[in-house]
Amino acid sequence: MGTENKEIKNRLSQLRKKMKENGIDYYMIPTADFHNSEYSADYFKTREYFCGFDGSNGTLVVSADEAGLWTDGRYFIQAANQLSGTGVTLFKMGEEGVPTIEKYLTDNMISGQTFGFDGRVVPAEEGELLEYLAKLKNVTIKIDKDLAEEIWEDRPTLPCHDAYVLSDELCGRSFKEKLADVRSKMKENNTSMHLLSKLDDIMWLTNLRGNDVECNPVALSYAMITDDMFILFIQSGEITDEVRAYCESNDIVLKDYAEYGEYLSELVLTGNILIDKRNTNYLTYKLVADKASEAGYEIKDCSNPTELMKAIKNETELKNIREVYLRDSAKLTEFIYWVKENVGKIPMTEYSAAMKLDGMRAELPGFIELSFPTISAYNANAAMAHYEATEDSAAEVKAQGMLLVDSGGTYMGGTTDVTRTIVVGEISDEIKKHYTATVSGMLELADAIFKDGCTGRNVDIYARRPLWDIGIDYNHGTGHGIGYMLNVHEGPHNIRWKNSDAANKTELKPGMIVSDEPGVYIEGSHGIRIENIVEVVNRSESEYGKFYGFDHLTYVPIDLEAIDKKYMKPETVKLLNKYHKTVYDRISPLIEDEEVKAWLKKATAEI
């Protein structure tokens, strides 16, 4: 530990030397790539390199005589251990008396100083806020320097993997059809150019996929769309003969990813340009904004048109998704049977259980990769909503209590996400009460009827009501959109009661798919989450308007050992029985093992 901390101190000292050379007084290093992806590749782990903390969320701020790391409650213990002896102070985000990064900078920076960060790894909206604060303090901002470049000698290379083409048959619509729709939205916004930086949007639009971000089948890329040209910036090393031929036949102009910066600096605007500030890095945005200002054109800041188009799945996508979810559901059901049969009889940890499920999924036809690292959490660990067991730290799963497993895969034809909390031994009456309320919330939201024009915020109460009735809540959203062979977390729609732009503005429309995942988290005791994915569908139409509802895509049994009917409304009991009948009807034909099938019959019996 001592050597490692000396190493960190040495790296910080090199960083401070470079800061001085570049006239930078405070330097900020967030956790992000150039596209604000959910996961950062090793090349982008600069914050970890300079402080030793390797959690998935954290921002380092360094000055001549101080260094601080900001992270959230999931990582307080880990960060305290990893920062020990490095000279880096831990700032526990959200705790009373702990300043935000903005407050810290405002309190500490003085007029005439310079604040620096790599503008490629900070979203434009955040960059603008920092710029505003700097102006208030008469501080200069420097955003064109990645100081790690000159210090990190053995820095990993940018991830670079072969891109691949999805057939139009698999996607339901061709690139040219999608591009025509985007161009018509550009016209509506009175723009003749559109810069696209969001990786899953680019992949969806081009019908290409890659492997540059963990669990997201995307390639590092940018796209520039004009009225008559489509330029794709992607690493040359990722372009196979198939991809090149596809791009040529679709008039996609290929440029190397490394040429993007130079292209931007030489860019000549031909009209107003559409840029989504939420999904564009600050350096890109500033370069384009300066050019627009010089040329007398406007930047239209609005959501990428691709975002909503991507969220409303077409008939081909929906057909494939439904099939993929059935196969995935059958496999998870087999896993639940395996857990129940083997717990207490063979050595089992949270980690080994996750590995077992990951291996079972990988056997399914068309499997590409996991859609996120499997969450396998036993008893009290499940009270941490985003707990991830490692081989070294995993708890033993014993024949007592419950195991929560949140998992999913990406296949040719769809991306899945599902959570089940599995009873592995004796549980208390209180746990049964919490479990029954969670299941009731999931089923009641899935059964909701709502009018055209409703957003996720309008329907969230269906899932929370059974929990609110007993004075309990969960501190996360109820639902998120899911990509088609893309990111497992996809907007713009979601289901949550708290105020948020996307939840307020994005209406739920037929063709959208969304998760339905209420939960209960009792610190030090237990955690329960039940997650189904549902599809928004038409239900009826009358003189009062169009009415929508949800159809289940997930068909995995709910654990009846944790259900107590006395905590359930009679109509919700009917919903559970109806759901279980469909589970058996849909997935039993996909299960070959007769013992598993016999168990499934009992597991889905009427209560």
Automatic annotation (TrEMBL):
| One Pfam family per UniProt | Peptidase_M24_C
Residues annotated as domain Peptidase M24: 320-536
GO CC term, one of those recorded: cytoplasm
Entry's Gene3D superfamilies? Creatinase/methionine aminopeptidase superfamily (3.90.230.10), Creatinase/prolidase N-terminal domain (3.40.350.10)
Q: Which residues form the Creatinase N-terminal domain?
A: 11-141
The family line of this record is: Belongs to the peptidase M24B family.
Under PANTHER family, the record lists: XAA-PRO AMINOPEPTIDASE 1 (PTHR43763:SF6)
Question: What protein is this chain from?
Answer: Xaa-Pro aminopeptidase
What is the source species?
A: Butyrivibrio hungatei
Taxonomic lineage: Bacteria, Bacillati, Bacillota, Clostridia, Lachnospirales
